[in-house]
Amino acid sequence: MDFSYTIFILIIPIAMFLLLGFFYNKIKPAVSGWIGVAGLTAVAGMSYYTAYQYFFNIPKVAGKFQTFFGFKMNWMNYILPKTEDLPERFLAIDMGILLDPISIMMMVVVSTISLMVHIYSRGYMKGDRGYTKFFAFLSLFTFAMMGLVVATNLFQIYVFWELVGVSSFLLIGYYYEKPSAVAAAKKAFIVTRFADLGFLIGILLMGYYGGSYDFMELNNPEGFNIILENAPQKFMGISVITTALILMFMGGAGKSAMFPLHIWLPDAMEGPTPVSALIHAATMVVAGVYLVARMFPMFHFFDDGFALHVVAWVGAISSLIAAIIALTQTDIKRVLAFSTMSQIGYMMLALGVSEYDGHEGLGYMASMWHLFSHAMFKALLFLAAGSVIHAVHSNYLKDMGGLRKYLPITNITFLIAALSISGFPLTAGFFSKDEILVAAFEHNKPIYFITLFVAGLTAFYMFRLYFGIFWGKKTAYEHTPHESPWSMTIPLMFLAFMSIASGYLPFSEWVTADREAIHGHIGLFSNLGAIHWDMAAIAIATGLLGIAIAWFFYKKPTDYPAKISAAFGRFYKWTFNKFYIDEVYLFITHKIIFKCISTPFAWFDKKVVDATMEGIGNKTVDVSKLIKGVQSGKIQDYAFAFAGGVFILVLIVMYML
Amino acid sequence: MNITSFLLMRHEIILLVLILAMLVLEVATKPSQKKRLINIAIGLFLIHTIIGFFPAETGELFGGSFRTTGLIHFFKNVLNIGVLIILLQSADWLRDKVAEYNKIPEFFILLFSSLLGMNYMISSGDFLMFYIGLELSTLPLVALVAYNSFSEKSTEAAIKLILSAALASAVSLFGISMLYATGGSIFFEEIAANLQTSNLAILGMVFFFSGVAFKISLAPFHFWTADVYEGAPIGITSYLSVISKGAAVFVLMSILFTVLPALTDVWKNVVYIVAILTMFVGNLFALRQQNMKRFLAYSSIAQAGFMLMGIIHGGNLGVATVVFFLLVYVFSNLGAFGVVQAISSETGKENMDDYTGLYRTNPKLALALLLALFSLAGIPPLAGFFGKFFLYMAAASVKEYLLVFLAVVNVTISLYYYLLPVRNMFLRKSDDAIPYFKSKSMMRTGLVLAVLGILVLGLYSPLYNYIVELSASVL
Fold first, then answer.
1. Among A97, A310, A330, A602, which residue's Cβ finds the most Cβ atoms within 10 Å?
2. Coil, strand, or helix at residue A74?
3. CA–CA separation, A386 vs A269, rounded Å?
């Protein structure tokens, strides 16, 4: 099968970037929007065609999907000179396009979401001064992300990884007149770069001891013994390769906003909302998950999967913390940001509890499936939130309420996405979350209970958001909010369809750890048969409970504001009593749950985690201020420092060492 | 030894001819015609640079005082390219500012003399040749630093440089005398054969190291750097930060490796401490600089700290990575200094805040500076990334993980300040941004060469492998 056309999946976005970037003064905004949409349509079309060819038309070999290269060229070759314990070796660095189930799945995700965001942005960014520049940056991001997912080796993935970081920096800081946006862009760039330090050292170690950067060579189980022979060093009880994997996961955790490297994600919401949907919901933030999945055989085999345990627990803890914090947020985009972090924690923990062969590899499949369905419904949530923000010009819940009358399409689509993320039966989120729960239940009970608890919390905060925006109190709006234009609602409707439909894709046949089908059911509705209904029942109950509580707290006040004011006299007591019950609930939720659990978590997050990171930055600047006086400008002082330096060096080498 | 053996000194002989030619031309040219000498001098130097690439013999002269190898020859070519770019970037400044004082030929004579000194220093086979080369490279530089006539800062910088340099020379000479006392010779090979670990030898090594560390501006011997860089004309600042520093790193490395192998365990510790200190000092000071020249001065101090990582490796791989890094550093730093020079000679502005909104008015200059700074910060796939990457690899392969970790922490700190000018240029807008101007053709050539170097070195691997092969033969 010839996949050489896939090179255009990379060429088209970068060509669009160059075109729009260099001629951004000359191209009319309307034209640039269409150029972006047309280009992305072509990219998406090719991705779908590739997926169709790969999954349906190419025969499997021995029941397994094969790996293809759409394009491969040798970029660089480096000599590693002979050392005491290793012979002289050659390290090849390639650039290419690797096609296997997960890379094709990611291509479909990235191109679909990017296309939807392009269409949506035509409406959302209308009238913005830098309209063309915005589309140029979007194209650059799409190029970088595509290059990342099709990478054939660690080095290529790292290069595109950084490029993704740069383009995300440009997009978050897009409203450069807002100081908070510029600060957030810098924070995101620097925090993720800090995490990338680990990634880089991990790649170094892997290249040096593993002897290759190529995924095909590294992930080949038959080569593991050779690698182990070449990398005998133990560091704190684990092999160098495991250390390298954990360091690489550090990079992934930075990009995927895992605790405690997540602090950039909430701030990154300063960017335009379509950017949040593209980068911070569906594509860039799952790069870390993708990296672990890409290196999965290594993660699984070295040191009995020690690195994978780290992944599982980091994922579980992040997922729990983020869900708890999401309860208290009032900025709707921040709720979604924490929710994203929580769901990515799900994907990580699912990978973490997975084994390699057959049905034991359920977690891997579940993680990838959840990645896919999450991309659809979370992008939808962000875009719908953008539509709401577009209508009321505020990010805060307090300025919203009762919007279902004004924004009918946004209302319905948001509801579908919220049901899907809450795991409501027969939606996409239900299927993928069910698989994660089963995988966790079979392999790691403590993580299973965390996962279940988070599922309840998710349903609760998501419906708190839904009721708060579309039901709840009737807010008096200065301008009557109106539904967004078609360019914005069409992507919403498409993604709403996908938020349900992606639950019926036969993922267990397509995307598995060892590339063999797990269940063997064929047909569109086989997923229903494959469900573990006992597990599903518990999950459904938890989700419904969360929704019910949210209903009870946040839908009701709709009826109250009017009644309370009308019944001020004679119905006062009645309302008061009713209100009193609400107060009790409020007391329980706000005073006990929020104050005692959630707020401390939020406080810890803000004051300790965030502050530590920022503190390191501030301290660096402080130290820099402090030592400024040393540079006095007097030559005597310099001579003194010189002599002192010599003297101290002599002391150190003669007496201390 | 016959007359053709002198061709081993091809670089030095041609430079000497150039210097003499400039002396004659100085006398022979009418004052009004002297501006033409700029083009003539640059043309001659271009020829010298090209001749440098012809294949060269390797061998020794003067009983081992002067030696040359493939790597030394290669490194001299690197220095030549660097000087050529500096000359191209300085041409406007010479024509506009210096011509009125009628000091154009002297500029070239001094600069070529300094380069001649560096070439001898690199090729030295004994401490006498080394010391003569060192002094010959430093003294003309003092005059060049003071080249902005009637500028107090420039004069002050020159005085600071000569006083500090005198101190450093004295210290390193003292160290050399102690090494002579224990090794019983001034020839590198004999010292290497005779030297035993003794307190006197260690003392000598530390003093010698400190003297050379001054030239590389390693902490705590770096204090002169910022003042001198700020006061000197920008072309000379780039020369100090690239050529002078590069040559000194190269010499330090080859002397530590070939002359003092007996003290390897000791000097590794010294280099380790100084490397960490230098990285942190350079980065922490750079954070708060407003003047672009001072900013780049501290950034170049931090970069020097990185080079020491390759020295710690102590083997062929270390040599190769350091030389590759120096090559990358030449282009990256000259790219950055070139843009600063272009803006300064056109508008006189040198502060970071003046660069606000530069992308809108002068997109090409802004892009060149962006590439240079990103390369210095080590963002892939630019050359600077690979330079640093190989240094990490060298240090990691001798299991200096802590050093690698501290180095990457420093890279993150440095990213913060390298982003400051980038943010000013690209993300902010200003009402009094530097208006559009078109640089002169020489300046443009200089910038294009630097940017090409940044882009090509990152993507063209045979060069690195070539350096690895060269360094395998050296030790």
1. A97
2. strand
3. 11
* DSSP-derived secondary structure letter, A304: G
Residue A478 DSSP class: S
Exposure b/e, B283-304, CB count within 10 A at least 16 = b:
bbbbbbbeebbbbbbbbbbbbb
Of A471 and B354, the one with more pLDDT: B354
What is the radius of gyration, based on Cα positions, of chain A?
Answer: 26
- In the structure encoding, which two tokens stand for residue B369, read together? 């500076």
A&B contacts, CB < 8 Å: 149
Q: Are B156 and B145 in contact (CB under 8 A)?
A: no
Q: With contact defined as beta carbons under 8 Å apart, do A93 and B462 qualify?
A: no
Nearest-Cα distance to chain A for B310, in Å, is 14
Residues in chain B: 475
The enclosing H or E element of B405 equals: helix B401-422
**Phi/psi of residue B181, nearest 5 degrees:** -65, -40
Interface of B with A in 149-178 (CB under 8 A): 159-160, 163-164, 167-168, 171
The 10s digit of each residue's pLDDT in A563-592 is: 434 544 443 344 333 334 344 444 554 555
B 38-67: CB under 8 A from A: none
Cα gap A299→B18, rounded to integer Å: 62
Contact B465 A646 (CB under 8 A): no
Please tell me whether the peptide bond between A446 and the residue prior to it is cis, using omega within 30 degrees of 0: no
Q: What are B416's two structure tokens?
A: 């913060």
For chain B, give the longest Cα–Cα distance: 69
Confirm if A62 and B449 have CB atoms less than 8 A apart.
no
Q: What is the pLDDT of residue B88?
A: 92
How close is the nearest chain A Cα to the Cα of B273, in Å?
9
The more confident residue out of A51 and A595 is A51
CA distance B307 to B326: 8
Buried b (16+ CB within 10 A) or exposed e, B441-454: ebbbbbbbbbbebb
Contact check, Cβ <8 Å, B412/A186:
no
Q: Would you call A310 helix, strand, or coil by DSSP? A: helix
Task: Identify which of B221, B415, B465 has the shortest CB distance to residue A78.
Answer: B465
Q: What was the pLDDT predicted at A120?
A: 87
Distance CA B283, CA A619 (A): 13
Distance from CA of A477 to the nearest CA of B (A): 34
Q: Contacts of residue A205 in chain B, CB cutoff 8 Å?
A: 396
Q: Which helix (H) or strand (E) holds A97?
A: strand A89-99
Q: For residue B36, give how far its alpha carbon lies from the nearest alpha carbon of chain A (Å).
A: 38
Q: What DSSP character marks residue A206?
A: I
Q: From residue B87, how far is each of A279, B154, B231 by CA, in Å?
A: 46, 19, 19
Contacts of B226 in chain A (CB under 8 A): 631
Residue B122 has pLDDT above 80, yes or no: yes
Cα separation, B227 vs A637, in Å, equals 13
Q: Which residue of A has its CA nearest to B407?
A: A197
The position carrying tokens 């492998």 is B465
CB contact under 8 A, B223 and A638: yes
Query: Are A624 and B408 a contacting pair at CB < 8 A?
Result: no
- Burial pattern A83-121, b for ≥16 Cβ within 10 A else e, equals eeeeeebebbbbbbbbbbbbbbbbbbbbbbbbbbbbbbb
What are the distances in angstroms from CA A537 to CA A417, A452, A502, A542, A543?
20, 12, 21, 9, 10
CA–CA gap between residue A357 and residue B418 (Å, rounded): 47
Q: Quote the pTM value.
A: 0.74
Residue B415 has its nearest CB partner, among A75, A193, A637, at A193
pLDDT of A514 strictly over 80 = no
Q: What DSSP assignment string belongs to B277-307? A: HHHHHHHHHHTT--BHHHHHHHHHHHHHHHH
